[in-house]
Amino acid sequence: MAAISREEVAHLARLSRLAVTEEELDRFAGQLDVILQSVARVGEVAAEDIPPTSHSVPLTNVYREDVPTTSLTQDAALSGAPDAYESRFRVPRILDEED
Amino acid sequence: MTDLTRLSASDLAKLISTGEVSAVEVATAHLDRIAAVDDRVHAFLHVDRAGALEAAAAVDRGEITGPLAGVPIAVKDVVTTKGVPTTAASKILEGWKPPYDATIVERLKKAGMPILGKTNMDEFAMGSSTEYSAYGPTNNPWDLGRIPGGSGGGSAAALAAYEAPLAIGTDTGGSIRQPGAVTGTVGAKPTYGGTSRYGLIAFSSSLDTPGPCARTVEDTALLHAVIAGHDPRDSTSIPQPVPDVVAAARLGATGDLTGVRLGIVKEFAGDGSEPGVTAAFQESLQKLVKLGAEVVEVSCPHFEYALPAYYLIAPSECSSNLARFDGVRYGLRAGDDGNRSLEEVMSLTREAGFGPEVKRRIIIGTYALSSGYYDAYYGQAQKVRTLITRDFQSAFEKVDVLVSPTTPFVAFPFGSRTSDPYQMYLADLFTIPTNLYGGPAISVPCGLSEGLPVGFQIMAPTLADDRMYRVAAALESAVGTFTPPAL
Amino acid sequence: MSYEEILTRYEPVIGLETHVELGTATKMFCGCKTDFGAEPNTQVCPVCLALPGALPVMNRAAIEATIRIGLALNCDIAEWCRMARKNYFYPDMPKNFQTSQYDEPLCVDGYVDVEVDGVTHRIGIERVHIEEDTGKTLHVGGATGRIHGATESLVDYNRAGIPLVEIVTKPVPGLGGLAPEIAKAYVAELRDIIRSLGVSDVRMEQGSMRCDVNTSLNRPGEEWGTRTETKNVNSLRSVERAVRSEIIRQSGILDGGGKIHQETRHFHEDRGDTSPGRSKETATDYRYFPEPDLVPIAPDAAWVASLKAALPEKPSTRRARLREEWGISELDMQSVANAGAVEIIEETIAAGASPAGARKWWMGELARRANELNIELAAVGATPAQVAALQKLVDEGKLNDKLARTVLEGVVAGEGDPAEVMAARGLEVVNDTGALTAAVDEAIAANPDIAAKIRDGKIAAAGALVGAVMKTTRGQADAKTVRELLLERLGVS
Ligand SMILES: [Mg+2]
Ligand SMILES: [Zn+2]
Fold first, then answer.
1. Where is the Asn/Gln amidotransferase domain (chain C) (predicted)?
2. What is the nearest CA distance from C376 to chain B, expressed in angstroms?
3. What is the per-residue pLDDT across C288-299, written as a single tens digit (0 to 9) for each?
4. C275 and C239 together in one domain
5. What is the CATH number of domain B4-260?
6. Cβ neighbours of A90 in C, within 8 Å
7. B212 CB contacts (<8 Å, ≥6 apart)?
């Protein structure tokens, strides 16, 4: 059984903001299926009572003091912008609803 | 006169500090070598001739001193360099000039090390062959028709081609060690948190580790000492002194490993390594025994799940880390014709800017983090990570270090593993467990198989980076170094 | 159908999510300043612009403020918790994920007691967590500056990354028709508590406190209904109106046999009702996971205990105490609290003013000015000591009410303390009888007809002459004294 369908890949691509082509969808669906079937092997491990590891260093409470540091200049901040106007980053119209 | 590009970093540093050669001469020799051979090797995405010479001149003026002052270095293009293009080998960052330096770059500059340029890699460090660079592959100096490993193929190839004596790499699943192995160079992944990630363009935050690459173990240790140490800008940076890796390497070079216990992992045996790789590894192991080391077989029963766990954790984190590349604040913007919505433009930008391997991993990661699948995939992978860590911990109760081949196969020809992504993933079979655990590991050349280099991996407990350097230097003293055919 | 009638057939359940921008000097994960109103994109750095390679480091003061809020809301403080990434694409969020908290909030399970009409209602607090704010987007090309119809948008990331505390109540059933008022009273109480901690200026009109209101209806004895979430309700009054309008709207749909859709709705200040926003069925999956770039938060028990011991007096306790001391009504006390004037009046009294005097100036002239300029009372330009000194001058008879206002104007304009303004502007009540007598005699001489009328017993006509004297003395005379003197000179006293 396929772990992942073409439609599912299309949905995930939308969620990931990737305008994949039809050709890519076909190719990815097959490849991702192989990959997912392989990685699904993690499920074979009995690990109900095992705590997950999110960080490999056993550090806690790493903070900075509430003291201002130098920010970028406005020019430096905007230097990489594909489009800017009146010192702001310009973007095309945003769809009415957030997704 | 000596060819300066053939010298080790440690020798170059001595010559510069005694005034026998100038730092500018050393930088020029390497820049000239790059100009002469890099059209064939393609280790560099960007060469900063002016910047390197300026930094070298400052050393010559006596403004900066230090153990590696004046020794030039190549930096993987995933590390930010202020005002110098940084692309992570992706179209989406083509032409981007960061307004800031990574912490490790700051440290290189403070140490007086001229930065020659930025090296090629798999896009966003995702790959094991550098074939996934958006700017074309790097060719292995041992055989230009073969891969130089990845993702840090550019850094490793630059060393093997004598374009640079030192290089910076980053290791998420083996991206320093595996390229080191297939190019006959040395590469170390420090303990996670031992080197700062600030300014390293994130692939998988909980795994990414910058580290040193060189042609000798001592050079690797010298560079390690320059870049390692606590950085308050990286919350996961370890606030502890760095072990004296240089002293450990020099101790190891004396060739005495009496009483050192080397663990070989039972579960790695019969895992599809090429016979030549296995043979070179076994031979080297015997040489270490002659130096006084003891070999102990240990069991790490969860290592077989390391690859699946890694290929869930790394893509999950990358799907989130790479969300910022959206064509709003920097980098490529595609499809903005004045009519399309931002959502369409973002999707077209990411579609045009990312290569196929990056897209595959983003999609897998998005899938693994989805609410319906989280527990079965990402959550389960993190539990497996705990079990792998426990395997390491119990192994290190019995042995001082674990050893294995670095990668199951020598440099393979271009195109032989790109059609089936999972075949490519197997290149990292032996390197990945360490990334999940967080400990240090190093790859040292140990022999040749069919004329191509084989890497020997030494894995140590977290924070015991010095221990792996000692064994690595001892191995180097026993097997010698390996020189690729002339280009 | 009347609101009261609806409540005989439906029971509302409400819930509130409140976001409070902390008043830290720097952002949550970087050292950029948080000054309001700075030039666009001048308080940004690699971290808060999400440049490739940049990494976050948590602001200790923000964690401390969150713990203090949690303690003030009677919450348990987690011994160990993590930040999480909330993944979704939006241009005002530079990383395209929000660094927030998910299933491990810093503070859990507290409550706030809210008093309405003499009855105390306990509102349960589900969680208090720390996260970061987004940038600000300007929509251009549309008719109204709104996103709808805009042709493009402009983004300023100065606000991106400012620490934001989210306070979520448990669902609150059983309030009946009082639900709108209690919702409002809860938000007011929350605001007072947070203000008393000094961790935020909690100004709803400036957006440093923002509310989302959940509302559902069910028939008595039945399960809770489907809830709607009304977004960004930006004043206390709107909280009440938003709940009321949702109750009315939902009851209309249920009465007609319809179903309530789980959706977000937008409250319209002008119309007093809500319109549909995003539907939850199509909502994105946020793919939360523990933030790998930050290490866990594990507050030390001794630290938490010391923060708890140092909490200020609860605003409700304090208000009751001050109300008693000042001798004012609950209503008056409420308006003082609403104006954010409790502390400043207290300080003015401590500086020597009577409670009535202190309250008069801060709630009158100065509150008006603060409102006009949309600034805090404390920023209005007068200090408690100056206001106390002003009131003292009035009490001593050196200033009358009108002069005192003029002096206050001078104080606010930065001309110095009240005494200095008086001296510089030559403002003082003229009590010197000699000078006054001369002015009165002058007025009598200048208005013989009126003087005659008064002598004939038409005392009411005296007002005109008093006015004339006040005019010649430029308001500095005491009207009562003038009147007495005038009648005396005319021999009718
Ligand atoms: Mg929130
Ligand atoms: Zn910042």
1. 343-490
2. 35
3. 999 999 999 999
4. yes
5. 3.90.1300.10
6. 152-155
7. B166, B167, B168, B169, B187, B188, B190, B219, B220, B221, B223, B224, B227
